[in-house]
Fold:
Amino acid sequence: MVLSDKTIVLGVTGSIAAYKAADLASKLTQAGAKVEVIMTEAATEFVTPLTFRSITGRPVVTKMFELASEYSVEHVALAEAADIVVIAPATANTIAKLAAGIADDMLGCTVLATEAPVVIAPAMNVNMYQNKVTQENLDKLKARGFTFVGPGYGRLACGDMGLGRLVDVDEILGAVCQVLGRKGDLADKRVVVTAGGTQEPVDPVRCLTNRSSGKMGYALAEAARDRGAEVVLVTAPCALGKPYGVEVVDVATAEEMYGAVKKAVAKADVLVMAAAVADYRPVTVSKSKIKRQQAVSLSLELERTPDILGQVKGKFLRVGFAAESDNLVANARQKLKDKHLDLIVANDITTPGCGIGADANQVVIIDPSGKAEKLPLLPKKEVADRILDRVAKMLAKKR
Ligand code: CTP
Structure:
């Protein structure tokens, strides 16, 4: 949401990773941003301006003195229009020029003239990256408030292994969203989110778990980050990539999640328990693998796990989830009351196409007055923002 209607100047420089900038331009455009691409001359050797023009639907600036371009006459127009400038990939040469304040091309001019935040994703050979002069240039730009994302470690175009790879596009997107949202309505707030289905071991191979994908919790963590919050994500194992700019605490069992949440909420303003916590675990965990030959039938004795949300209390707001198959609103209201919550988000797990594992969810948000707000079927990212709208309002009231 933080990207919609924003003007993003995307600087592309002469690296083999320039083709990845096309994906970045596409994702930014799909998220509703107006993407203005500036390519250095070297970048046009790797990817054509037509690629970016086709993706963004906007003219691409390649030269300072190009009469056909609407920006050539007013050489600082893009600098003024930008909500953010993103340079991906950024070569050692471009970084050196920016550090020195050189403005001999449109990208240099724009960065020198803009008051917008600048995010840089470097890509270069490992020796170029580790060279003292490059490190000094990076330090200079960091001291001026530029945000750097990466580079990553891996195989480089020259065949070397090392630091210098352009990070994944999703990481760059995460950094852009975080920087754009840093003055949002959750700025200076600490938000703890739990996600995923806990795993309770039976033996070294098997565990008891559930079908939670973690998508709702991860969407909440990213949405809170994009509204300026400092976010801790306590996550049970799931197949999702770690969100950029969020402190991730990996746990497996309900007991581990309990310990991690107790620690994380120390200075928290909000706890959102989106995790599907196992209610029971095996009383004993077999040290060796249980063999098929052992017996014709097998019973597991189970005991209750700690009710994390029921027990972790403090001055922070507490938001729970209720995944129900019957009497949705009544059951959720009861949980809200029993666990003394500030908000509960209920969803009917029998509705097809939403809830566990899906990308969308249809939820009812209930507050302590008992008032129920029924939302339409929405992508989980939007559900996350609707929940955080309520959280931000409650925090503002509390203040
Ligand atoms: N929860 C928790 N610790 C548990 C179980 C649940 O913190 N051991 C949290 C969930 O993360 C969720 C809320 O409590 O935010 C409600 O979870 P749910 O499983 O629906 O509630 P239960 O109290 O376990 O009730 P039941 O499973 O009987 O419906």
Notes: The pocket of cytidine-5'-triphosphate is lined by residues 254, 273, 275, 277, 279, 305, 307-309, 320-323, 335 (CB under 6 Å).
